[in-house]
């Protein structure tokens, strides 16, 4: 093999491994913490409002509106934090990494968003809306496996496992499906996943501090 | 004219080149992750990491805080520079071979 062929082959090895090694964290840990706490609070408030009286119950439209507002708020916080991180690294916010993340995340997020809105708005079924959001969010996170850190993959797997478990339990339980206070069941699903799992993810990422390096020499 | 003698012999070996590439692409790799990504045996990987460490290209960190000790590897400044020079040289070799 000539030097040129060897050089070309080695450059191909570098390129292919570089693509594999590339890492992009699309969800900032502090944003996940804020989102998790707010999602838990909103879920708790929904359950409380359902328990207090018939007049304080959330309508499907209000349920949908509040969760969309929370999504928008958390997305804005996430973008601000990602923008700070990008400027710290001297990189533009809308980098190639971010474009790749958005391209990868958007099909599953878009599908889940539309399905959830239809379930809540047209069917008046908040539980199905919540479950479709949870499962599609899990699939969106897992679709970034080629460039995500391990914590995001774990978060995706946890969302999928818990989302499917909740779906099976809800489907297999006829009394849950006809339960009159359906928004409470949906709130429990949302609180356990978007609330609790995001808090656990954020805490796990934040407490993992890098160790000081020691040289071989 | 390119001097082929300039090629860094430490990096110019496929296994070590792969290790250097992964470390250059992402800041830090755990031993187990490197092993899984490169499908290398423990002995083979540790030998190459030791060679790279002796050249001053790779540094090792040990985290004993968890239930199992975790060893991670990262490029040193010298290693990053050597890797960049190696890639530049490969590109120059390929470019020189192409007809104008």
Assign an overall shape of chain A: elongated
Radius of gyration of chain B: 15 Å
Spans of at least 5 consecutive residues with low confidence of chain B: none
Helical proportion of chain B, percent range: 40-55%
Question: Which strand order spans the largest sheet of chain B, edge to edge or round the barrel?
Answer: 1-3-2
By oligomeric state, this entry counts as: heterodimer
User: Describe the biggest sheet of chain A?
Assistant: none
What letter string, H or E per element, gives the SSE order of chain A? HHHHHHHHE
How does the helix and strand content of chain B classify structurally?
alpha+beta
Average pLDDT metric of chain A: 85
Query: How many distinct helices of chain B?
Result: 4
Largest interface: A-B, 23 and 33 residues
Order of helices and strands of chain B: HEHHEEH
Measure the end-to-end span of chain A.
35 Å
Give the DSSP E fraction of chain B (strand runs of 2 or more residues): 5-15%
Task: List its traits.
heterodimer; A: 217 residues; mainly alpha; elongated; B: 100 residues; alpha+beta; 3-stranded antiparallel beta sheet; 3 strands
Briefly, what is this?
The complex is a heterodimer of chains A (217) and B (100). Chain A is an all-alpha fold and 217 residues long.
């Amino acid at each position: 093999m000539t030097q040129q062929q060897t050089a070309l082959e080695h450059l191909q090895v570098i390129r292919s491994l570089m693509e594999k090694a590339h890492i992009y964290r699309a969800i900032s840990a502090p944003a996940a913490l804020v989102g998790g706490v707010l999602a838990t609070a909103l879920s708790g408030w929904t359950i409380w409002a359902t328990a207090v009286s018939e007049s304080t119950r959330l309508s499907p439209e209000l349920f949908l509106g509040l969760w969309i507002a929370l999504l928008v708020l958390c997305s804005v916080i996430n973008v601000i934090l990602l923008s700070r991180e990008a400027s710290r690294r001297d990189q533009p916010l809308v980098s190639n990494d971010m474009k790749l993340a958005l391209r990868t995340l958007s099909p599953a997020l878009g599908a889940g968003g539309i399905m959830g809105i239809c379930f809540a708005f047209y069917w008046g079924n908040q539980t199905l809306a919540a479950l479709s959001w949870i499962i599609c969010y899990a699939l969106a996170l897992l679709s970034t496996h080629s460039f995500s850190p391990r914590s995001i993959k774990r978060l995706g797997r946890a969302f999928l496992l818990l989302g499917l478990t909740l779906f099976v339990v809800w489907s297999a339980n006829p009394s849950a499906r006809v339960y009159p206070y359906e928004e409470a069941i949906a709130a429990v699903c949302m609180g356990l996943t978007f609330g609790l799992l995001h808090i656990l993810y954020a805490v796990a990422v934040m407490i993992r501090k890098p160790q000081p390096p020691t040289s071989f020499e | 004219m390119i001097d082929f003698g300039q090629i860094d012999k430490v990096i110019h070996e496929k296994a070590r080149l792969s290790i250097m590439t992964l470390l250059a692409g992402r800041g830090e790799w755990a031993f187990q992750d490197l092993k899984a990504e490169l499908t290398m045996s423990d002995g083979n990987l540790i030998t190459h990491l030791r060679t790279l460490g002796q050249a001053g290209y790779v540094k090792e960190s040990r985290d004993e805080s968890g239930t199992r000790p975790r060893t991670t590897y990262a490029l040193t400044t010298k290693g990053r520079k050597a890797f960049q020079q190696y890639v530049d040289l490969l590109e120059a070799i390929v470019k020189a071979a192409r007809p104008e």
